[in-house]
Amino acid sequence: MRSTSLPKTKQIARILSALSLAAFALNLSAQPAPLPGRPIKVLYLGHSSDHHNSIQLYPLMAEPMARQNILVSLVLTPEEALRPDVLQNYDALMMYANHTTITPSQEKALLDFVEGGKGLIAIHCASAMFGNSEKFIALVGGAFQRHGTGDFTANIILPDHPIMQGIKPFVTWDETYVHNKHNPVDRTVLMERVDAEGKEPYTWVRTQGKGRVFYTAYGHDEKTWSKPEFQKMLQNSVQWVVDEPTRQGYQKYQAALEARTVAQAAARAARAASGNPGRGGAGRGQ
Hints:
By secondary structure, the protein is of the alpha/beta class. Helix content is 40%, strand content 24%. The chain has 9 helices and 10 strands. The strands form 2 sheets. The protein has an 8-stranded mixed beta sheet.
């Protein structure tokens, strides 16, 4: 009698295909569900100079940020950063460089970015940047004038501000910046450096349009950048300067990630207690 079954090679092909589809479906089911919200994205404008070495200091800041799901991308020129098509991909812009001039189109892109609701984090030498732009100086809230050096501790004068949460006064060697061209409009001073000359605003925040600005004069080199308090202050500042939808989305993401991590740890503990640790583990001996 003539067989109506498929040739063996076709049968094997169908079986392998079915197994592949089943494995693919199993793999999909094993993938964790997408988390609500998302990490915060920051563009970091540095430079290639060894003085205020933004490339060398980048990992001291970016790696702790990444552990908090704040993702920081580095570029080295205003031409790379200060363009609407670039800035639209980020929640905040961080500056630490010695660039001295800004073009009208770059100035407009930056002001539109902040006034439209995004954030600016200006660190140390950022207050000496773009001296040809009075609008930039006003945006930051002041300009670098001169400095000495030494070990000092700036006083926290607004400890209840969100950026100061989890931070205690800390001693570090740094440059003792003095500023001019202060813009007190919508500016709140968080820290002051006190010496024989008086009280110098050292860390502050501003609002402009719908956006927020953070500035600190701290940060000449790794002596300060490696301080946990400085790193925590930068992390807090990022979360403060971003707009409310971004901040809420980030908080949801962090909460969901923590809950998933706890659930996964509990599941692993339960499997270990039952003697079935699952994939990658070994059961109890027979």
